[in-house]
């Protein structure tokens, strides 16, 4: 685990350095068959922008610059990075906490000129030689909240987007963040929450990581902080051919993929492209303000698909066969203790032996909230990236960044007819791929923080 937080200068802004390749000669770029562009080289739109920019470009009109600062924690997570990317592009300032400066997203955030970065953990080990796993659910003796770091992040902030994770005691960290936000009089606090299923039905088990967020949400409501709560669906971005539990797209010898999970094949699930769509939605919440959204819960999911429909969308976008296999969650790599407990509870909640799709618990716990998908999300942001588009344009790029080469295979796959839906595969998928010893993605260095946040 990372060492104790390093001292931070509160006035330090890490700015983008000039690229050493700025004056380099053009070089050939390797492209694979999944690379796509919205416009062709002969497009009149591109032609206009290249050859007639001076004569066709309209006069610029002055635009107001947002005079507000957003406090963000776990800034290299997919949700937070999405918000930072779009908020800073339109003029907001951000004060962001990063666990470390490793990886492509941390680099992106830390070199953004509109971001003030604070590097350190939200928890503190009382003993420097304490090497225990700090992801276990609940109180861990000797692990306390880094309140000084939280106070630094919130200094001068009027808005906040908070997505807590299981590093340290998540409930204690979340409550401390809410207390600091109250003290500095944050005008609008948006919290990324999730349900405690046992609160909706005592026969349903609580998922440790989600129930912790539920407790933080209840505390935020209790202290009267002007807040909105977003419930994010399953990330499109979770899929990988690495041996990662629950969302492994297992590459087969014939070039097809198999996804195995406990979800009923005919039960609807909420889906979201976290990196593409969280930012615009949260920004709209800030624009509308607490007068419209205070105390509200929002299902942030842009598609409501069964596992079979999700595989069909993935198959259509990717141009390769994708089958769904209903089965237990297989853990083939090293994972944090807290996430292991989450997977055990999740498999119990979404039992792979439940024969009735109607009896599968709603992903968000509350049926009314779940049924608001995708309308509630589309009311905030109307340009989402669906699972089909993600599979065709982004998935191959992320796979390539992880050292995979299947996307360069010249063998073409005959796409199925539009009416053909992948059937439920009752056979165990065959895979001889070696087990990856951890959650680090080779090229992007996305560790468990990015996968789960």
TrEMBL record:
Superkingdom assignment: Eukaryota
Keywords: NADP
Domain NmrA-like: 67-391
Ranges of Acidic residues composition bias in the record: 408-436
Record's keyword annotation contains NADP: yes
Biased composition (Polar residues): 37-51
GO cellular component: nucleus
Gene3D superfamilies to which the protein is assigned, alphabetical: NAD(P)-binding Rossmann-like Domain, UDP-galactose 4-epimerase, domain 1
Compositionally biased residues, Basic and acidic residues: 444-453
SUPFAM superfamilies, A to Z: NAD(P)-binding Rossmann-fold domains
Sequence segments annotated as region (Disordered): 17-51, 408-453
Family recorded in the similarity comment: Belongs to the NmrA-type oxidoreductase family.
Protein name per the record: Nitrogen metabolic regulation protein 1
Organism: Pestalotiopsis fici (strain W106-1 / CGMCC3.15140)
């Amino acid at each position: 685990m990372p060492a104790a937080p390093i001292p931070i200068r509160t006035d330090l802004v890490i700015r983008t350095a000039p690229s050493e390749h700025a004056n380099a000669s053009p070089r050939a770029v390797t492209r694979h068959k999944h690379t796509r562009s919205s416009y062709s080289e002969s497009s009149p739109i591109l032609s206009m922008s290249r050859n007639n920019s001076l004569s066709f470009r309209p006069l610029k009109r002055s635009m107001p610059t947002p005079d507000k600062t957003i406090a963000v924690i776990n800034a290299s997570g997919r949700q937070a990075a999405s918000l930072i990317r779009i908020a800073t592009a339109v003029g907001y300032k951000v004060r962001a906490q990063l666990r470390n400066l490793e990886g492509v997203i941390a680099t992106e955030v830390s070199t953004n000129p509109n971001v003030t970065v604070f590097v350190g953990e939200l928890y503190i080990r009382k003993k420097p030689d304490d090497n225990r796993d700090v992801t276990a659910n609940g109180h861990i003796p000797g692990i306390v909240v880094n309140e000084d770091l939280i106070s630094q992040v919130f200094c001068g902030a009027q808005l906040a987007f908070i997505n807590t994770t299981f590093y340290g005691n998540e409930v204690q960290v979340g409550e401390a963040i809410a207390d600091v936000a109250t003290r500095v009089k944050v005008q609008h606090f948006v919290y990324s929450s999730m349900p405690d299923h046992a609160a909706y039905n005592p026969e349903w088990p609580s998922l440790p990581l989600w129930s912790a967020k539920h407790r933080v949400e209840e505390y935020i409501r209790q202290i009267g902080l002007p807040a909105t709560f977003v419930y994010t669906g399953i990330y499109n971005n979770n899929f990988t051919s690495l041996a990662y539990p629950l969302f492994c797209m297992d590459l087969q010898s014939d070039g097809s993929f198999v996804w195995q999970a406990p979800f009923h094949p005919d039960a609807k699930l909420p889906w979201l492209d976290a990196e593409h769509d969280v930012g615009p939605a949260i920004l709209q919440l800030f624009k509308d303000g607490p007068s419209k959204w205070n105390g509200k819960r929002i299902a942030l999911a842009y598609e409501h698909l069964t596992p079979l429909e999700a595989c069909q969308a993935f198959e259509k976008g990717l141009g390769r066969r994708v089958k769904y296999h209903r089965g237990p969650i297989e853990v083939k790599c090293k994972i944090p203790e807290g996430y292991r407990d989450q997977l055990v509870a999740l498999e119990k909640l979404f039992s792979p032996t439940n024969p009735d799709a109607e009896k599968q618990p709603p992903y968000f716990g509350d049926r009314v909230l779940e049924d608001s998908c995708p309308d509630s999300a589309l009311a905030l942001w109307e340009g989402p990236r669906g699972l089909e588009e993600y599979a065709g344009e982004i998935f191959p790029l992320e796979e390539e960044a992880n050292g995979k080469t299947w996307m360069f295979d010249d063998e073409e796959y005959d796409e199925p007819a539009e009416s053909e839906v992948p059937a439920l595969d009752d056979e165990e998928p065959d895979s001889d791929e070696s087990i990856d010893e951890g959650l680090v993605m080779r090229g992007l260095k996305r560790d468990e923080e990015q996968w789960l946040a």
